[in-house]
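Protocol step 4 of 5: obtain the predicted structure for the target chain.
Materials: sequence only (see below). No template structures provided, no constraints applied. The aim of this step is simply to have a reference model before the mutagenesis design in step 5. Sequence pasted as it appears in the construct record:
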Amino acid sequence: MATEVIIPALGESISSGILATWHVKTGDYVEEGQAIFELETDKITSEGMAETSGTIDLKVSEGDEVEVGSVIAIIDESAKAETTEQEPDSSSQEDSSEEEEGEAESANAKPKGQHPASVRRIAEESGIDPDSVDGTGKAGRVTKADMLAAVEKADPVDPAGSTPESEPAKPAQTVQATGRVTRKKMTPLRRTIAKRLVQAQQTTAMLTTFNEVDMSAVMACRKSHQEAFVKKHGVKLGFMSFFTKAVVHALKEYPAVNAQIDEDEIVTNNYYDVGIAVSTPKGLMVPVVRDCESKSFAEIEQDIIAYANKAKEGKISIEDLQGGVFTITNGGIFGSMLSTPILNAPQSAILGMHTIQDRPVALDGEVVIRPIMYLALSYDHRLVDGREAVGFLVSIKKALEDPMRLMFEI
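Step 4 output (structure tokens):
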């Protein structure tokens, strides 16, 4: 009996994708529930599982574009009996004895030399041998997340996004032996990001206003309560929860910023689902933290960490990316001092955070050193007036410089 492997429906707006990686090859025996391929679409990357056990025959190659509903492989279920009853040859006697000693250990043995394209790409760029990495995938396979963790461990990155001088970051290998450049097709996700960024520039009257915020109060609050916070909630008290709460506070004060244009209508949102921009190896994604007005600082931090882990493992879903009313992006983790973030359409505003630097400031007639962050608010001037944009940013500044305002909602 033969079972077809079919590209499943992935969402209303997705009709095709790129078969990025085969985790198996023609003739391999696959188990029901085993991850056998990786599919890249213009929104997410997802894994496909075998629906039955048997020998697989691949019908498309890595890099091919495949339509939803198309057949990409066939699994021969009748091969199961042959695989099970097959006599071990002399070369496998040693393996058989090992299985008798520890069947579970053998079942988890890591396959050597066969790795998905995403793992091979990271290996080429980092110089790390995938066979030296402990795999957490099925049957001990090395996953992209395993490689990223190995790279981070071998070449740690500081909060500003730079590597230690003693171990400079290894540049990506972009020069082939046959020429001075390489070419590869853009992934669906990268194409969509490029299209949306250009569209945002062309279809909105985007303007950016700036301010600066003294982070002393937030930093003191974190230092004072960090230990108790971690002990109770199991996560660190980060900056992002403060900024998210400050954004919600400002959105309530300036509802025009929480609106969007739909043809000739203005749609004002009465909810506060905030997108948090996350950088991934495949490009920028903006998962959405829901109902931020009713969530605690701890719940917001937990949601952000969960999304960061899902993004790192390539498990962000379409639902995770939909429905945001406002976006926060933090270029400061890469060392950015100032930037003009681009709108995440159809939203009408986005807040850019930047690196914190000690600066001399005048306070009560004296020059003091304070940790200062520049803030940037990009907004659609068709909908948001300059007065509202400036007021919105000032509201965030006040809330961060006096966090008690968030507690009392003033």
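Step 4 remarks: The longest strand covers residues 366-380. The domain at 1-96 is CATH 2.40.50.100 (OB fold (Dihydrolipoamide Acetyltransferase, E2P)).
Proceed to step 5.
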